[in-house]
Structures are given as C-alpha cells and as structure tokens.
Amino acid sequence: MTARRKSGGSDAKLYEAADTVAQFDRIKDDLARELQKSQGTDITITAKELAQFVHALQQFQEDVLGTNNAHLLATAPARIPAKIFRCDTITTSSSIYKTLKAAYEYRMGQGWRRWDLSSPARKSQNLDLLIHIRQELVSQGLIKIPAVAFDDSIGAEELEQLEAAVERLGGMSYEVATLKRAPC
After folding, report:
1. Which domain holds residue 167?
2. Least enclosed by CB within 10 Å: which of 45, 51, 107, 182?
C-alpha cells in the first residue's frame, strides 16, 4: 500500500486509485463498528477518507520528520515505519487497520472533527497523534523497540550522541562489556 519514491513522499495517485480505495472499502464497516463499540459514538467512514488519511499521514511524516526536516525539531519522535503501510490485502488484522483504529480513537478522544495534517498550526498536535499511533503499534508488537550495543572503542562524545538517538527512537542501549557473549 505504499509506493516507493525517491523523494520519500507518499504517492497521492496510489491512494486515489480505484483498486486502492477498494482495499479500504473492505475494512471501513468493521472499523466503524469497532470505534462505535470502544468510543460509544456513531461514526461514518468512507473508504476514500481512509485512503486519503493514510496518504496524508505518510506525507506528514515525510514533511515534518523526513531527512530534510527532522533536524529542525529538537525532540523529533520516531517515525512510523513504512513497512506498516505496506500490505497486499487490507484486513482487520493488518497493520494499516490497526494504525487507522489507533488514529481514529485518538481523534475521537481529542474531540477533533476532521483530520488536518497539513496545517502548520496543528503540527504539535499531529506529532502527538503520531506518537500515540506508534506507541499503540509497539504495544501490539507490530513495531519492535531497538536494542543497540556499543563497543568500548567508541568515544564518550560520540557515545552520548548515539545513545540520545537510540533513546529518541524509544530504544535501549548497552555497552558491549556488560553483555554476555554466547559461546561459539
């Protein structure tokens, strides 16, 4: 469901294509039913709206957290990996479905009436949305938290920078000396 592009941005044409929208049509009723059950309010969702949201979410990540912009945020959160958006068939057990469910639950919990991922005024709120979705995907085991080991040969300054990057990604870091090596 995600197109590979050299710019890193999401492909709008892919998400406007009839066969892509049809994929989202398979899950829209189940998603609305689950949201009604968990949130207690009626919600109407269209397949086109779901497709457009997935495109907009990927584009927001690229615009705000992409390689050209992530350095502008002092504490940029980790991105939702592209593999989450890749699936041949969207079902209620697919990662895209779980992403959409987490996003809609968050939106309803915040009282938002619509998505506005392109507004600079809502960048902070949309980053909170990304953080929430990512945490939900981690709790469901769809995103693994990285564990990184550093060798003693790395300098203190470089180690500090690398540990900060690992922490920003929600990972854990270790020094090689503290790890037990398995016998060969």
Report:
1. 147-178
2. 182
